Amino acid sequence: MDETYIKVKGVWKYLYRAVDKQGKTVDFLLTAKRDMAAAKRFFEKAIGANGDPNKVSMDKSGANKAAMDAINAGRDVPILVRQAKYLNNIVEQDHRAIKRVTRPMLNFKSFRAAGSVLAGIELMHMIRKGQFAIDDGEAMSFADQFFALVGLVRPV
């Protein structure tokens, strides 16, 4: 688990992202602030959608650790938290694909637009990593798979 920065209306916002050992995207969340409440919201969203992890690796962010401590306080079996500078290299490398697409955009005009565009970018990235099984997906391009998932007809 890690966060990266995205510019919205000239102000840095935070994109929380989590990947598993194989580099598959677990979840993501765009937030206005980087604090315990935002980190806790992200962890609860990720755990609710994907189940309980055995371990969580993160950097030395105090807000992220405090959020995991708050989540672990109400659990019978706590989630092991590993905080080390280099344990989250998989997610740091995964940020590169998102930054490669968003950097030429320079800036998002609204927080809502940023959330929608980032969800599409994350979806395309997940398709490229083979995280979705679509009927006849092997014969389809990544773009065609994207349009099939969102229920649209691809423009010609």
Average pLDDT rating: 85
The CATH superfamily is identified as: Ribonuclease H-like superfamily/Ribonuclease H
Q: What can be said about the biggest beta sheet?
A: 3 strands, antiparallel
Shape-level CATH architecture: 2-Layer Sandwich
Summed up, the domain count is: 1
Instruction: Figure out the total of helices.
Output: 5
| N- to C-terminal distance | 38 Å
Widest beta sheet: strand line-up: 1-2-3
CATH level 1 class label: Alpha Beta
How are helices and strands ordered from N to C?
Answer: EEEHEHEHHH
Global outline: globular
* Cα-based radius of gyration, to the nearest Å: 17 Å
Can you tell me the CATH topology?
Nucleotidyltransferase, domain 5
Helix content: 40-55%
Query: What's the count of strands?
Result: 5
Low-confidence stretches: none
Strand content: 15-25%
Class based on secondary structure composition and strand pairing = alpha+beta
List the helices and strands and how they pair.
Blueprint: E1 2-8, E2 11-19, E3 25-31, H1 36-50, E4 55-58, H2 62-73, E5 80-83, H3 89-102, H4 111-128, H5 142-150
Parallel strand pairs: 4-5
Antiparallel strand pairs: 1-2, 2-3
